[in-house]
Amino acid sequence: MRILEWILVIVTVISAVVMLVAPKRRVVGGGTLLALALAILLHGVIDHFRVQLLPTYIVVLVLLIVLSVQLWKSGRNIQNTQKQKQKQKGRSWFKIILASILVLALSAGTIVLTSFFPAFTMPESTGSFAIGTFSQQLTDDSREETKSDETGDKRELMINVWYPVDQETAKGLSLEHYPAELGEAISLVFGIPPVVFSYLDTIPTHVVKGAEVSAAQSKYPVLLFSPGIRSTRFQSMTAIEELVSHGYIVVGIDHPYTSAQVTFSDGHVASYQPDPDFPTSKELYQYNIKGIGIRAEDASFVLDTLTQWNSHDPNQLLEGKLDLDAVGIFGHSYGGATTAEALAQDERFKAGLSLEGGFWGKVSTASLKQPFMYIMSGGTAKSLDPDATAMDKVFYPEFEPDLDRVMTSSLNDTYYLTVENFFHQSFTDISLISPKMFARGMTPEHNVDITRSYTLAFFDHYLKGEEQPLLQGPSSKFPEATYDTKYTKLRHQKAE
After folding, report:
1. Do residues 290 and 327 both lie within one domain?
2. 111 & 212 share domain
3. Total domain count for the chain?
4. Which of 47, 63, 338, 384 is deepest in the core (most CB within 10 A)?
5. pLDDT given at position 426
6. What tens digit of pLDDT does each residue of 187-209 get?
């Protein structure tokens, strides 16, 4: 809980005690009312209201009303001296105890709810750069939108570009917050009402707007990020910040109708469309081939756009700053499948990392030419066991043969890493949002550090040519992470 949230709860409990024990003391009641009103006002203005504190808000509202009525009645009794004073009755200790228990129970409810969904602080990135950003709406005039209600609509995307900024330049600029889209996405994924996550747009990131790209390097390697189905380009801000702080320009892509609700710059909205029901896994498999193909084309279109911006950037930020000979792509779940297919379709991507994605499309029949890393959660990995009695819901029948073919037929280096105590959503920032629910067997900071550290190590090695101990074997820092020897092969190194 934030400090003002604690203060509000404490002031609320004290106010309740004062109201029950000394209801007739006008000065005490007035001071209590003022303190309670000030506490709720400061909390609302500085911290902002959030649903997790609803039990406390109920108590505050009741106390404000009762205290105000008591003060009003006390004032009337002082002025109206001709009225006979009623005989003061003894207080009912039973009522006092009952009311106290109710206030304490509601206050405890607030503490429990905020412990499940805390107002967290994002971990600091480890690189030397600050982080700038801008968003952009893109239209691919060469493709028609297949899921739009309007015939002839062109494929549109929303992207965010995050780029390195000098620390001195970033000082004094206000920090961006997690956008509201993240709460909508989490609600879609977990079926939790979005109001539970409405406070996320009060959580500051380490990102600023309006800053120039750092001149520390003449140009920077580029990474594209594709989110999971029903998710958003903001789902993995810890990994994005880490990469940018180490000198990458990262471009997050929202894919309309498979991402969560996408709000475009011109105000129109493209909402997630659930998959149709298919009687067989084969039909669903073919449907996913088409869907991932569209997403892979999105990635190539974004890279086309970046190539144009490197020569002439309408935002006058990125001209000449993009190292288009060092372009990688990574993604989670459906975004991981997008990553693998983009590698198969577009050789301009020099390396790719899939965070537990599938293999739909050309990638399942062709041989990858680029370095490829696959990271799987321990929870999903159990589904590969022939004796498994239960399959993870993200697991599908064709996955294992596709995985085997992709990893064994690759013409370049491949890495296959399994992380124990991870589940499918552990590759996002969800462990920070609710550590009690989603950080399993580790701190939330350690959870996000695993994903961002291996992602950074992989791209530092293959886009910057730097040696990385994390890619060479087990790490004492991350004992949960284990390389599979069957699929982890350094073919390129052997060829040299």
Report:
1. yes
2. no
3. 2
4. 338
5. 94
6. 888 888 888 888 888 899 999 99
